[in-house]
Design a protein that fits this description.
The protein is mainly alpha-helical and 217 residues long. It has two domains: 74 residues; 109 residues, Orthogonal Bundle (Endonuclease III, domain 1). Helix 8 crosses helix 9. It binds a DNA duplex (13 and 12 nucleotides) through helix 2, helix 3, helix 6, helix 9 and helix 10.
DNA sequence: GACCAGGCACATC
DNA sequence: GATGTGCATGGT
């Protein structure tokens, strides 16, 4: 079986079990970008609390968030954890968005995918996963998002030989699947789902939709 | 009371 | 280039 066939088989099993995940759970591209920074190494439920705080404070626009004092911003996003670090990262992102694009995401939208990725990676606090999450979930670009769950599932099921890094894992998916943003969107969300419920640091393989597929000890 | 969560930058070797 | 560490809240 080719890698592409294996990846499609896994996708079909996950989708059959869990159904569409309706990612990203954000209301606008701007919210997706803010959420992508806030969710770094953090449970999404905590991020929702932080975003709710921003919404209730009526500062969920580029201009208002950019104008907010750093300590006030940190206070509002406190539930998301690492709040001082993340306040600085959001500020850096907003400096870029407001400084280079006047806070206008429709202008950002016009940029090509690889140029945009480079711009994101140049912002302190935006690494590969956050950049790719924004490209896929805010801008619908066919970029596969790699995260800890992706690495765990791919490693355990022998899709890739360790040691492997982010670009290698991303290339595995991008070169073996159709270059399709809705597919990448759903696939990543499904990997997160199976990672939360079964493919955990200490595995819970009983009842896993991937049970019976090749697996490492 | 551990363990875990949709990373990243920086220090040190 | 590889490895280690700080950052922090909140749910299980």
């Amino acid at each position: 079986m080719t890698t592409g066939q294996k990846l499609n088989q896994i996708y079909e099993r996950l989708l059959a079990r869990f159904g569409p995940q309706h990612w990203w759970p954000g209301e606008s591209p701007f919210e997706v970008m803010v959420g992508a920074i806030l969710t770094q190494n953090t449970n999404w439920g905590n991020v929702e609390k932080a975003i709710a705080n921003l919404r209730h404070a009526d500062v969920l626009t580029a201009e208002r968030l950019h104008a907010l004092p750093r300590d006030r911003l940190a206070e509002l996003i406190r539930p998301a954890g690492y709040f001082n670090i993340k306040a600085a990262r959001l500020a850096g992102y907003l400096d870029w968005l407001c400084g280079r694009y006047g806070g206008d995401l429709s202008r950002v939208e016009r940029r090509g995918t690889s140029a945009l990725r480079e711009e994101f990676l140049a912002i302190k606090g935006i690494g590969p996963e956050t950049a790719d999450s924004i490209l896929l979930y805010a801008f619908n670009r066919p970029v596969f998002v790699v995260d800890a769950y992706t690495a765990r599932v791919a490693g355990r099921h022998g899709l890739i030989e360790p040691p492997f890094d982010y670009p290698q894992l991303q290339d595995l998916f991008q070169s073996s699947l159709a270059q399709d943003a809705p597919l990448f969107n759903e696939y990543h969300a499904l990997l997160v789902r199976v990672g939360k419920e079964h493919c955990r640091p200490t595995p819970r393989c009983k009842g896993c939709p991937l049970e019976g597929l090749p697996h490492r000890v």
